[in-house]
Amino acid sequence: MSYSCPDCGSESIIDCHTGRNVGSVTGGVAGTASGIAGASSGASAGMAAGAFGGPVGIALGGLAGALLGGLAGGVTGTLAGAKIGEKLDQHVLDDLECDHCGHTFRSHN
Ligand SMILES: [Zn+2]
Hints:
Blueprint: E1 13-15, H1 18-50, H2 54-91, E2 96-98, E3 104-105
Antiparallel strand pairs: 1-2, 2-3
Helix pairs in contact: 1-2
The structure holds zinc ion.
């Protein structure tokens, strides 16, 4: 389906996923933060598992646990944020932008 700009009539319209972009970044940051907060438990679990391998195993296990916790949180947060942002794009924000004059508008009212 093609749209034309309600302001200048240009048919050079681009998608602007402001909500999705902002949402995935915000979600990613929040998710990573909560993942890192949860990473201490991942780290202690990793250290417990690594304890069988002696001091090196404890260090490696703790590091792996912390890394995995932060990574998992970041990915989960990014996905959740993108989903929320997509809903914002669809229901609240303008989701189309005129490439000619920069006017933003919604594809469906
Ligand atoms: Zn325009």
